Amino acid sequence: MALTGVIRPGHVQLRVLDLGAALTHYRDVLGLIETGRDAQGRIYLKAWDEHDHHSVVLREADEAGMDFMGFRVDSPATLEKLAGDLKASGLATDMQWIAAGEHLRTGKRFRFTVPTGHAIELFAEKEKVGNGMPYENPEVYPDDLKGMAPSRFDHCLLYGDDLDGTMKLFTEVLGFELAESVVAGPERMHIAAFLTCSTKPHDIAFIRHPEKNKFHHASFLLDNWGEVLKAADIITKKRVSLDIGPTRHGITRGETIYFFDPSGNRNEVFSGGYIYYPDKPPLVWTDDELGRAIFYHDRKLNENFLSVVT
Amino acid sequence: MALTGVIRPGHVQLRVLDLGAALTHYRDVLGLIETGRDAQGRIYLKAWDEHDHHSVVLREADEAGMDFMGFRVDSPATLEKLAGDLKASGLATDMQWIAAGEHLRTGKRFRFTVPTGHAIELFAEKEKVGNGMPYENPEVYPDDLKGMAPSRFDHCLLYGDDLDGTMKLFTEVLGFELAESVVAGPERMHIAAFLTCSTKPHDIAFIRHPEKNKFHHASFLLDNWGEVLKAADIITKKRVSLDIGPTRHGITRGETIYFFDPSGNRNEVFSGGYIYYPDKPPLVWTDDELGRAIFYHDRKLNENFLSVVT
Amino acid sequence: MALTGVIRPGHVQLRVLDLGAALTHYRDVLGLIETGRDAQGRIYLKAWDEHDHHSVVLREADEAGMDFMGFRVDSPATLEKLAGDLKASGLATDMQWIAAGEHLRTGKRFRFTVPTGHAIELFAEKEKVGNGMPYENPEVYPDDLKGMAPSRFDHCLLYGDDLDGTMKLFTEVLGFELAESVVAGPERMHIAAFLTCSTKPHDIAFIRHPEKNKFHHASFLLDNWGEVLKAADIITKKRVSLDIGPTRHGITRGETIYFFDPSGNRNEVFSGGYIYYPDKPPLVWTDDELGRAIFYHDRKLNENFLSVVT
Amino acid sequence: MALTGVIRPGHVQLRVLDLGAALTHYRDVLGLIETGRDAQGRIYLKAWDEHDHHSVVLREADEAGMDFMGFRVDSPATLEKLAGDLKASGLATDMQWIAAGEHLRTGKRFRFTVPTGHAIELFAEKEKVGNGMPYENPEVYPDDLKGMAPSRFDHCLLYGDDLDGTMKLFTEVLGFELAESVVAGPERMHIAAFLTCSTKPHDIAFIRHPEKNKFHHASFLLDNWGEVLKAADIITKKRVSLDIGPTRHGITRGETIYFFDPSGNRNEVFSGGYIYYPDKPPLVWTDDELGRAIFYHDRKLNENFLSVVT
Fold first, then answer.
1. What local confidence, expressed as pLDDT, does residue D2 receive?
2. How far is A240 from chain B (nearest CA, A)?
């Protein structure tokens, strides 16, 4: 197979202040599908076109934020190999195996902390529950989708301090590539990195920030700009807190809107963006063009975007 | 890197009856950009968001059709390895190395014939000429795009007899996967195969057909369904011969329109389609649902689609 | 007020062979809202953004087709005046007043037959039931819309013999204008007329046809081309009989798809089209360009479009 | 004819600080078509689907803003009648006839000042120059459109003090209707009025403001939300000053983006909005919902929108 190693973002576990309010948001507003609850009370959800059992896990806690983000790898052998590589790299800390079944219908996961302070997981096995349509003679989408109805969990943007270390870990150990980056000052220090393990412009992204382990947003994929408008309308009809949008990113070219879940965790839904290939020259943005890089139309950052994280 | 081996369709060389008329079509109607002409008189073109020197080569000849389709591999080492694998496979015939430079700005290519009779090439080196924008602080698309202005050459659909042999070659030797297929009769014989080497629903496709080495269409990527309408309008404004569309495919879910170049070679422009991952369960269509599989709205094939090939 | 006289198509009463199947189609597939049933068993429906009580009435009968189409006029005084003008014109036959209440929540209607054999009505009063949102601080559309969810009943296309007489009645008595027409032969005989009483490119249209009083289609308004695609997807998901589309009309420029209700009555949903003003020069199409006039992309008529009427 | 009296906004004359910079903006960025220059040096432009000679006139001056806005009436007789009605109304001041030919290819105009201080004109004759396509067998749009390429000049929003007087003049003398309004405080004083003379949600709008005769924006019509995105991209590519958008209005439901010409005059391009009929119940917004009324997604006004006028 041509896509190997780490193949995609597989899940994100989010802390929410009130599980009921969060479920209403992620199921009825965002439009994910609930697939299970575990003995700890965590709620599992998936986007409609994902085949795996879940991609979002909600955990009630006293403080919002991200517990961890997990990536699917192509095989158990790759999982073992990458666990070994991570141990050997000296770049990861707090490494541990999480037993199969700790997440519903999921095999064992290898969890580690990257230099920016975020917990990341790798896993090779999660039960396929399908996308609501048969594998023989399907329709093009299922009936009865709700809310914004994104087709997939797409990526996270995370804020943390040691951006260089995290970039090194993702590119040198996990096989990601730097599709785009933002550099600052005459030394062209990296202040943002957009990393891909596939043909998407990014599968995970990081922005340099004084604190470790902060969560900026989890992003979900829509079909097109018309669906971004529909999402914006839903945000108002449901009185969801809007951050910014609809607009376009310069980085990735994606069409986007940002908003907050009831606990203050930021979500994005977006569409578009180019196809990334490993021989594509990386794009670089300088900090004087950061506004246009992030919000292509406004050409300036809103204060929220830089400072509100969970 | 996560995407390795054969990474994408890199070029298609088409035979056209009149080079001037073909250039007008591919440059002004389809909206490709001319990047060169060689000593043989061949014209080289690229879609605007491709970085390689060319993806379409037009050669004047007495008969329309496809000379060959070429795939980019990730490295010269992979090119050598796959050439060896092809030789060892017993599935390819007419194998030869084409010298570097035979195509403008392109390294050496390994050409072979697959069991359906089509000439396929692999190459590892083609000069990057960029997408008309700087690599630092770019815009989201260049100015002065013309015609339908697809961003990329995406795939070809080819007709030929020994579908099983070609499927075997692409999946077992070149590392492609079968994303979708159509089967006929109680034996569920494959009559169509949609093969991917990436996260696209197909990078090449084949339909079983009594004759060897027939060309059905070359396809180019648009951003969205609104661009498909614009393409349809251009087809009429320029009095291009329409095959069918705008419509949607059941297979791949793509939004599409088909038309003919002045020599009778079929083109497609399309948008949409799902993201393919190697662990996605393959989709199968039965021949009684073939109409819906190909043209999701009409739910029947037009005669042209099955019989007109070059 | 600037728009006076006959102001819009207000309703169409359709004959259906099976009321239950028809209701499923018009409510769940097309997405109209049921607003009542009368003692005769007729079912009343409206599109979501209409404020009047109903715009479609379904009547079970042994033969499909249209009973009549009704237009709203601006006032009871105008209703009386136009009834008198019609009587004086010598162009209408079978004139009668239908008592208030014969249609639910509707005032008295003046019914007459036009030279092409169709029954047309005028009315001045129908109860306002609103569009599902308050008149103070509304949202932009209500929740829980179903199916294709057109916002309005827009127009009908009718087939009949004495096109000249009907054109004369609509333009000279009812104040319509001829926005576009199709002419045939060296005498440029009118074979199609697109008539407007507003700023829409047509509020009613007629095509010359040997038989009197035939119904071609009732049309409903969608927001945009993306909604036309969604309608096309629904047509297939619900296995509705498709006539043609998605495509564009040359006449009106509208983006369109045609399909049939379970009784064989044709429906259209469409979006777009220009703004008509009374000083806009009329457009004329010649019969050699009829294909492009009707189906701008195909540039030829399908046999169904010309021959299948109810 | 069903649409009579004042039928549409016909032109707006804008003051610009530098005629060359303004022409570049209105022709190459907005995408209007230059149709003439007069002896005073004024530049005349039209949107592509307008048939009249011009809809925008640029005049170089020391201060930006609007000289006047003109409405087309249905006939010379109506022009005379409305001039008389205005004189009799006691609501208009500074009334004068402007001679035919003072604007290129335009008949005589009746100019008057409304209570908010704005100069408004009526005219009945302006030469038809067409929309770049023949009246027989046209295409659906001409080739070689540039920039945002709106199809029509649509409306203006003006700021001034005596809103009640201006509303009275437009509704009681000129036959406009109040489609939507914003009211403030327990007395529900009108602070904004959206007035229509057609089936559009507004042909002119006013917001209460301490100063007389201020110009907020001139608005131009796009086909759809995808064109609004294209306009937003052009705004950035051409480094035009963005005000706000892309977003949606609660009032009118239109999809919109605002930006400034080089002199600081605000422009809008928008798509969508409902069809207005004279029997449609008027919509009222209260000032506590003003944010959502104006910017449906943000649900708050940006400071610019309320304070920056020319």
1. 80
2. 28
Give A299's DSSP letter: -
Closest CA to A302 of A256, A236, A271: A256
Residue D137 to residue C292, Cβ atoms within 8 A: yes
Strand pairing report for B6-16 and B56-60: parallel
- CA–CA separation, D142 vs D139, rounded Å? 7
In this predicted complex, what is the ipTM?
0.96
Q: A-side interface with D, Cβ within 8 Å?
A: 225-226, 229, 232-233, 235-236, 242, 245-248, 255, 257, 292, 296-299
Pairwise CB contact (< 8 Å): A4 & B8 = no
Out of C44, C180, C249, C276, the active site residue is: C249
3-state helix/strand/coil string of chain C? CCECCEEEEEEEEEEECCHHHHHHHHHHHCCCEEEEECCCCCEEEECCCCCECCCEEEEECCCCEEEEEEEEECCHHHHHHHHHHHHHHCCCEEEEEECCCCCCCECCEEEEECCCCCEEEEECCECECCCCCCCECCCCCCCCCCCCCCCEEEEEEEEECCHHHHHHHHHHHCCCEEEEEEEECCCCEEEEEEEECCCCCCCEEEEECCCCCEEEEEEEECCCHHHHHHHHHHHHHCCCEEEEEEEECCCCCCEEEEEECCCCCEEEEEECCCCCCCCCCCEEEEHHHHHHHHCCCCCCCCHHHHHCCC
Interior CA angle at B250 toward B249 and B255, to 5°? 30
Q: How far apart are CA B277 and CA B177, in angstroms?
A: 10
Contact: B247, C232; criterion CB under 8 Å: yes
pTM of the model: 0.97
Burial class (CB in 10 A: 0-12, 13-18, 19+), C89: middle
In angstroms, the Cα distances linking D108 to A215, D80, D96, D105 are: 65, 10, 10, 10
d(CA B297, CA C232): 6
**Token pair belonging to C111:** 């019914």
Question: Whole-number mean pLDDT of chain B?
Answer: 97
Catalytic residue among B217, B227, B255, B276: B217
Kindly report, residue by residue over A252-304, the tens digit of the pLDDT: 999 999 999 999 999 999 999 999 999 999 999 999 999 999 999 999 988 78
Query: Residue B196 has what pLDDT?
Result: 98
**Confidence class for position C220, pLDDT limits 50, 70, 90:** very high
Q: What percent of chain B has pLDDT over 70?
A: 100
Q: Is C155 a catalytic residue?
A: yes
Report whether pLDDT(D1) > 90: no
Check whether C2 has a pLDDT greater than 90: no
User: Which one of the listed residues C53, C118, C190, C202 is annotated catalytic?
Assistant: C202
Q: Indicate which of D227, D235, D237 best probes the interface with B, i.e. most B CBs within 10 Å of its own CB.
A: D237
> Which of D135, D198, D224 comes nearest C199 by C-beta?
D198
